[in-house]
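Holo model, zinc ion. Inputs:
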Amino acid sequence: MSNPNSLKKSYALAIDIGGTKMAAAIVDTFGQQVTETTTESVPRDSNGMAHPEAIIQWIGAQLSVIEYPLEGIGLSLCGNVDEDTGFVPLSANLHWRQVPFGQMVASATSLPVMAATDVRMAALAEATWGVARGVDFFAWATIGTGFGGYLFLDGKLYRGFHGYAGNFGHNTWDEVNGVMCGCSKKGCVETFVSGPGIARAGQKIASSIESSLLSQQAKNKPMESRDVFMAANAGDSEAKTILENAQRLTAISLAGLVNILDLEMIVIGGGVASASPDYVEQISQLIPQYLMTEEAKRDLRVEKESFSNASLIGAAGDVFIKRGLLSLHERTQI
Ligand SMILES: [Zn+2]
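Output:
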């Protein structure tokens, strides 16, 4: 184990660009945020495309007030990113195709820039400073507007052949009864267990069972997943069933990963996972019945995420690791 006192404190500017909001903060080599998070809506043009130059201007404004010596900029992006070059072949949420965003930020700021997809950054934060520190085989899973994650195998982040590993939410579950998914396939797991999936199931009940609490909630506005959580909390049996079904399918999906990869841990985060205090624990209790081996049933740990902003924190970790200031094999003890 590394001696925490031997680690020199260095700093990186972490940037997390999501589908609607972008966030920035300075993070040190101990995974501690040393400035408050600054947030801003993602600037978009009239066609809804996120504006790379305006985002870079905003990053420049963050840099202009920083009083720390920076080792570089870590960029967490919602979309597919070539982490070697910072090139973004596709981001559905930002409406980007073929945007060399990492290079653009590097040339505008003259700083080293490490860019990667947000789920990779989040897994990296958990492996470096979070609940998965010291764990060699784990999956990071996020349940929110989507369902997916990233893999950490044999002590390393696992990117796959094209860099797309971890898209387990896009395994097909029910092609016959499922709806179209954002990935252009029908009936993906994500369409059932994500926030929009839960809201869709709630809307279906609201339209068909008038006595349901969900039916009253849907009178004046579109159904959201939090309406289903509220109704379940108030004892509505249909809403409870919707959440139980989503949790069961999530458990089946995650157990499948463990059966294939023989994982030691699953870390679960995201807005749906934190919408009720027991959500992750309930999924955890459902998983063993779908596991194949007694060893997995005995040893698998299912944990809640350690950070509310893991992809932001992980973006800084990427800078420190790629610059040789931190090693995933000598992760810091906080
Ligand atoms: Zn899909």
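The pocket of zinc ion is lined by residues 170, 181, 183, 185, 188, 190 (CB under 6 Å). The mean pLDDT is 93.
Archived with the compound record.
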